[in-house]
Each structure stands twice: as structure tokens, then as C-alpha cells.
Design brief:
elongated; mainly alpha
């Protein structure tokens, strides 16, 4: 990066670039896995409900139908597939900025970082600390890691 008289260090700017990229990557993976799980449950519940209906057993079709309705409602409300696509597009913007950053001044990079941050992207709060720790580890840091709680670890497992 070209040098600039700016209060933030180059390390902080590089960290922010990689943090933004990692955060979008983890969110994209998380939403993708949730959408996949919803699809699988929908297929199995739909098949089971149809089999119960076809067999003429209302008890056999009741519970899969209820679960199918619940998953469909959650899927329509939460829209994980759309959020996954949005996060993936945002991640590509961060990747582009990372590639272009070496030819820009620190002020220009910071301005573009702020522009990307201003986008209201769907984020998972529990993945923020995971992304932070991942970037620290990528940059070879030995300290400064955030302790992850159970929900952080569960969301990281889904996003892996």
C-alpha cells in the first residue's frame, strides 16, 4: 500500500480487510448449510406425508406434515438461500478490495472499507468472534483470541 499520514496502521487496515472477507465467508457457509438442511427436511417430510396419505393413515402423515409446514414457514420467513447468495456477493467485493488495496492509499482503502461496512448484510452475531479468531490465526498472532462460547462453537461448526 502507498503510505499515507493516517492514524490507522497498515496492519489494522489489512486486518479489517481480511475480517470483512472472513465474516462474509462464514455467514455464507452458515446460511448455505441451513438452506441445505431445510431442503433435506422438506424432501423427507414431504415424502413421509405423501406416504402416510397414500397408505390412508392420518397419524403417519400428520407429524411429517406439521414439520413440513413449520420448516416451510421458517424458510419463507428467514430466506437462508437468499442470504447465502447476498453474503457470497459481499465476500467477492471484499476479495476485490483485498486485491486492489496494494495500489491504493490507506485513506482510499479505509473509505472503501467503510463503504462495504455500510451495506446492511445479514450477519450471524455468533460468527463475529469466530471470524476475528480466524483472522488472528491467519496472521500468525499468538495472543488476543476471544474465548468462544457454546453458541459460537455451534455456529462455527455449522459454517465449517
Amino acid at each position: 500500500m502507498k503510505t499515507s499520514l493516517y492514524e490507522r496502521t497498515e496492519y489494522q487496515i489489512v486486518f479489517d480487510l481480511h475480517y470483512g472477507q472472513r465474516s462474509c465467508l462464514l455467514a455464507s457457509r452458515f446460511y448455505g448449510k441451513i438452506a441445505w438442511i431445510f431442503s433435506i427436511i422438506t424432501i423427507f417430510c414431504g415424502s413421509a406425508a405423501f406416504a402416510g396419505w397414500y397408505a390412508g393413515d392420518p397419524n403417519l402423515s400428520l407429524y411429517p406434515s406439521l414439520l413440513l409446514s413449520l420448516i416451510a414457514a421458517i424458510n419463507l420467513t428467514w430466506k437462508p438461500s437468499e442470504k447465502r447468495l447476498f453474503c457470497e456477493l459481499e465476500r467477492q467485493k471484499w476479495n476485490t478490495l483485498i486485491k486492489e488495496a496494494s495500489g491504493l492509499s490507506a485513506d482510499q482503502v479505509d473509505e472503501r472499507i467503510n463503504t462495504l461496512r455500510s451495506v446492511d448484510s445479514p450477519e450471524i452475531e455468533y460468527l463475529r468472534d469466530v471470524a476475528f479468531n480466524d483472522v488472528l490465526q491467519e496472521q500468525g498472532q499468538k495472543e488476543g483470541f476471544v474465548d468462544l462460547g457454546l453458541m459460537n462453537k455451534a455456529c462455527a461448526f455449522i459454517a465449517a
